Amino acid sequence: MLDNKNVVLGVTGGIAAYKACDLTSKLVQQGAHVKVIMTNSAMEFVSPLTFQALSRNPVYTDTFDEKDPENIAHIELADWAHIVMIAPATANFIGKLANGIGNDMLTTTLLATKAPIYIAPAMNVNMYDHPAVKQNMNTLTERGNYFIEPQAGYLACGWIGKGRLEEPQSIIDSVSKHLQQASLLVGKKILISAGPTREKVDPVRFFTNRSSGKMGYAFAEAAAQLGAEVTLVSGPVDLVIHHPNVQRIDVTTAEEMYQAMHHYFPKTDIVVKTAAVADYRPKNVYDEKMKKQPGDMHLEMIRTKDILQSLGEEKQHQFLAGFAAETENHIESAIGKLEKKNLDAIIVNNVKMDGVGFAGDTNAVTYINKTLDHTEIPLASKKDVAEQVLKLIVRDLKQGDA
Ligand code: PMT
User: Which atom of ligand 1 has the smallest separation from the CA of 278?
Assistant: First the structure.
């Protein structure tokens, strides 16, 4: 995976900087072109000359050391990189990157790059466990950066615990494995719908449902991390998504979701429709707040369009996957929807079960494809469920090509 790849290796100031020399050498031996950026603190531990000799390239240490008037060095490096690796990554560096600080050659390059970033931390065990460091790592993970966990063992500071830089060969193996996975959906355009819709009655009231959008957002994040170009059509939810491969389109009503889905559908390869769309909406929408009247009231509700079914009718090359939220006879009902809506797959969740379906962070589903082959995905985080479903979709796409 690393042969002929341009790797920017960032080395920050920790005792494990000496292991970055071995990492540089191993990357070069595997055919990678390596350019090293060192922070001032890293140079307290290892000389730039060591990395220059091992990488056979100049080492970058200063944002203002502009040797070539034709180019700005940190932008040129940022654009040149296919992959960025940071080893060792200190708590200070992780904090700076999480907070968007660019005050040296390494951080300015990282803010400018579009390449995937792999971070191998190394620090004292208590620093590694510090809530601020954990929060910074979570922020970076949510933005699509990938961490290579440190090992537990004897640390140079004398403590025993987690914080030792992963061995260079293991860092390379993790990055290679991740790159291989990350390319699973490269070149594919995925359209995902998420969350509820809201159907207005008057300026203060609307009909909606319990969908939080978490399942759809998990799909968007997982698909982007597998290399897809994602369009996320989102109902009103309280979630954010940062991945650069995700374009988010906000909608409110079923009709707006219908319009957005049909707009992006022709240029889409795969559709995953997790949204819980209102089946009915009030026939009349009032401009003023409806006043309380004596006695009961009746609202006339009319059917919304079935978006998934309409996509099934228009389908050409697209792989169309729907969701089914069921409380009884879930497999039979899901198969009914698969056939009626002309789907390639349906993912059914029995939303009466604990930890399954609406609002929580977990789900358990059955994936059923056109040949009615079932795959059970047991209770797991919504992100894991999304990843497993996407891998099944890729399997079925390949079988369709065969
Ligand atoms: O958002 P979360 O809180 O994470 O919850 C996730 C979820 C429970 C919403 C999700 O896992 C799920 O089950 N989504 C489908 C919900 C649903 O509306 O199911 P359904 O069986 O009523 O609809 C079947 C399919 O038709 C769905 O893909 C739905 O998007 C689609 N549909 C339904 C009605 C309609 N008018 N248009 C549609 O496209």
Answer: 36
Omega prior to 88 cis, within 30 of 0: yes
pLDDT tens profile 42-66: 999 999 999 999 999 999 999 999 8
Q: Is the CB of 323 under 6 A from ligand 1?
A: yes
Tell me the per-residue pLDDT of 111-162, one tens digit each, with 9 for 90 and over. 999 999 999 999 999 999 999 999 999 999 988 899 999 999 988 888 988 9
Compute the distance from residue 73 Cα to the ligand 1 centre, in Å: 49
**Could you tell me how many helices (H) and strands (E) the chain has, helices first?**
13, 19
For the question of whether the overall pTM of this predicted structure is more than 0.85, the answer is no
> Are 27 and 11 within 8 A, CB to CB?
no
* Tens digits of residue pLDDT in 255-296: 999 999 999 999 999 999 999 999 999 999 999 999 999 999
Cβ–ligand 1 contact at 271 (below 6 Å) = no
Nearest-atom number in ligand 1 for the CA of 217 is 4
pLDDT at 182 over 90: no
How open is the CA angle 26-28-30, to the nearest 5 degrees? Answer: 70
The yes-or-no verdict on residue 402 having pLDDT over 60 is no
**189-401 to CATH, choices 3.30.365.10, 3.40.50.10300, 1.20.1530.20, 3.40.50.720:** 3.40.50.10300
Among the four given CATH numbers 3.40.50.1950, 3.30.40.230, 3.40.250.10, 3.40.50.800, the one describing domain 6-181: 3.40.50.1950
Structure tokens at 117: 């970033």
